[in-house]
Every structure is written in structure tokens, then in C-alpha cells.
């Protein structure tokens, strides 16, 4: 058996979070959820298993689901970005985080998933309480945007100077590049990349098929937007042709998926791909590893890759939206909490 990779670690002050009951939402770059939770436990925090009224602090990673953020706002819970919190509680020493390449997505064209599955972690005994830091602004989200925000030109320049020192994030598919490659190009021009869409972001680079939830948040924050093709022209980059994407319209949700072979593609709001599959497996579904002739129904999330959509259209496979399917099946699936069956109506 291959040896397990050592969990990353950050040295923190042992009493820094001694009076906090925490939960993590979103992706923590370089850490599995349980390892990130252990760092908070080392700082004296108690980890709650779900978002509830006991929680005093929500730690935000990248791409936290809008439904979860909305619930956080309604509960009035304090939120802090992971990176900002680590700076606040960090002690001396400690290893830097390492990349977690545990990616179960077979389709390289599909966009990144939104949220890791939470894992149980036993809290350590709390130390004496400390003085609380001043609360930071609560999470603020709205429902999906009616329209994508219009791309606004960044400061005019014939070179990459308009990106120098700017806090930037990319959303959507960048034709001819994966997200990391596109990010590396812009970092060479002086851009500072944020791990998630937050109030620090000054410019959002728009690729193809940006998710409606992400576009809604951009609109709420009032961040400046610019299309990738405009950035590429300013930087003198050769533009890869954008792929034509088939217009795949979702059909009606079936009454049952028991025994059916399914495939999930795109981002499922608040869930990893594997977590979404487990929910549907609980309703009797089976899952194919790739899009092939055995697939009877494709479950569509946001930002499905153009290659996958074109193949779905070519093969004529029925599709359904995730939210329509779980509602039809009576599954109450909230991000970060075990799925529950809704009570049947008479």
C-alpha cells in the first residue's frame, strides 16, 4: 500500500480561536477540509458539524455556495476569509500548504466544482476565552442575476499595465487555456489573484459560460469586468478560437431515477461532483464514469464544458437541471448537511 501523503500544517497560536465555534465553507486552497479544520482546532476553535445557531464564525474558502452564504447572512454569523484568518492567528513556524490534486472529474472542459464535502472532526478542549476581534462584514449574496453584468473596460493601456497591482479573479472558460495557465499569464503582468470573489477583487476576467450565481455576486460587489478576448488583445496574446457550444435545453425531471444510469456535468451549487452523485445514488441511480451509450440521463450543473455539451447534443441524451431533479424526487439537499427526504404530500 502506498504511503499516505502527510497532511499540510500551519503553526497557529493555541488560544487564538478559543471562544469560537466554527464551520468552513468553500474550497481551502491546498488543504482537504479535515486538515483545514484541524488547523482551526489547533487554534482552540470548536468545529460544528453543520451551519446552525451555535456557530459564531464561518471561515470562507473559494467559491462558497450562494445558498450557504444566504443562510449565513440570515443567521447573522460573522465571516472571515481563510487567508485573512490565518494571518490573524498564525504563530511561528509551520509548513506551507500543499496542493491537493484529488480531482475526480474526467472531463477537463468542465468548470471547477464549488464546495468540498464536510468531514467530521472532533474538537479539542477549549482554552480560556480571549478578547474577540472586531466583527467583519457578513456574507452578502442575492439570487441569480437576470442578466450578466456588462463588461466594463479597465483602465486604458496598450500593455499589461492596467493589471499591475490589481486584485483579479477569472470566471468562466478561457478558450485555449486552463485556469492556472491563464492566471500565470496575468500574474506576469502584475495582477494579484484572489482565491475567491470578495470585496478585494477589482477586476473580473470573463470567459465563456460564466455561472449565473457568480455573475450575480459580481454585480452585487460592483467589481469591474473585462472579457478575456479584450485582455488578450491588450497583451498581444494569440486568441484561441472559442468553441461553438450546442444549445442543450434541459427537459422535465423524471418521477424516478431508480436503476437509471446518470452522469453529472458542470458545477452543482454547494456540492462536489462526488457528493451530488451520492445524493442521487441514495435515490437508486447508477453513474457512468464517462459520457457513453449507457448514460440515460445527464444532470446539468452550471458551466458545463462545451465539448461535453456538444457530445450530449450529438448523442441526443436527455438532460435535466440538478435543482429540478432533486425537487421532483422530493430530496431536501442543503450544502454541507446530509440530504433529507421531504415529507410526501397527500
UniProtKB/TrEMBL annotation:
Domain BRCT: 12-82, 158-228, 252-323
Disordered: annotated span: 91-159
Segments passing through the bilayer: none
Bias type Acidic residues, positions: 98-118
Organism: Paraphaeosphaeria minitans
Pfam families hit by this protein: BRCT
Biased composition (Low complexity): 136-159
Protein name as catalogued: Chromosome transmission fidelity factor
Entries under SUPFAM superfamilies matching the protein: BRCT domain
Superkingdom, taxonomy of origin: Eukaryota
Amino acid at each position: 500500500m502506498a504511503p499516505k501523503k502527510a497532511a499540510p500544517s500551519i503553526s497557529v497560536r493555541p488560544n487564538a480561536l478559543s471562544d469560537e465555534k466554527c464551520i468552513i465553507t468553500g474550497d481551502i486552497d491546498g488543504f482537504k477540509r479535515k486538515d483545514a479544520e484541524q488547523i482551526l482546532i489547533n487554534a482552540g476553535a470548536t468545529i460544528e458539524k453543520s451551519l446552525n445557531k451555535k456557530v459564531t464564525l464561518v471561515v470562507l474558502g473559494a467559491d462558497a455556495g450562494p445558498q450557504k452564504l444566504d443562510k449565513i447572512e440570515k443567521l447573522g454569523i460573522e465571516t472571515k476569509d481563510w487567508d485573512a484568518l490565518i494571518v490573524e492567528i498564525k504563530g511561528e513556524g509551520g509548513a506551507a500548504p500543499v496542493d491537493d490534486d484529488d480531482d475526480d472529474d474526467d472531463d477537463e472542459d468542465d468548470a471547477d466544482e464549488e464546495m468540498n464535502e464536510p468531514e467530521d472532526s472532533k474538537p479539542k478542549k477549549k482554552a480560556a476565552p480571549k478578547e474577540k476581534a472586531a466583527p467583519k462584514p457578513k456574507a452578502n449574496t442575492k439570487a441569480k442575476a437576470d442578466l450578466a453584468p456588462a463588461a466594463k473596460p479597465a483602465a486604458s493601456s496598450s500593455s499589461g499595465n492596467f493589471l499591475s497591482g490589481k486584485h483579479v479573479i477569472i470566471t468562466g472558460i478561457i478558450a485555449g487555456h486552463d485556469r492556472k495557465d491563464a492566471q500565470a499569464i496575468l500574474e506576469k503582468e502584475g495582477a494579484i489573484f484572489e482565491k475567491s470573489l470578495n470585496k478585494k477583487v477589482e477586476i473580473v476576467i470573463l470567459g465563456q459560460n460564466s455561472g449565473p450565481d457568480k455573475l450575480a455576486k459580481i454585480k452585487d460587489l460592483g467589481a469591474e469586468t473585462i472579457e478575456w478576448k479584450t485582455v488578450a488583445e491588450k497583451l498581444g496574446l494569440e486568441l484561441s478560437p472559442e468553441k461553438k457550444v450546442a444549445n442543450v435545453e434541459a427537459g422535465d425531471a423524471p418521477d424516478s431515477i431508480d436503476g437509471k444510469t446518470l452522469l453529472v456535468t458542470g458545477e452543482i451549487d454547494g456540492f462536489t461532483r462526488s457528493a451530488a452523485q451520492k445524493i442521487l445514488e441514495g435515490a437508486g441511480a447508477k453513474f457512468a464514469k464517462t459520457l457513453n451509450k449507457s448514460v440515460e440521463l445527464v444532470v446539468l450543473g452550471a458551466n458545463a464544458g462545451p465539448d461535453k455539451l456538444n457530445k450530449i447534443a450529438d448523442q441526443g441524451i436527455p438532460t435535466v437541471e440538478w435543482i429540478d431533479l432533486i425537487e421532483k424526487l422530493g430530496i431536501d439537499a442543503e450544502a454541507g448537511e446530509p440530504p433529507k427526504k421531504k415529507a410526501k404530500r397527500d
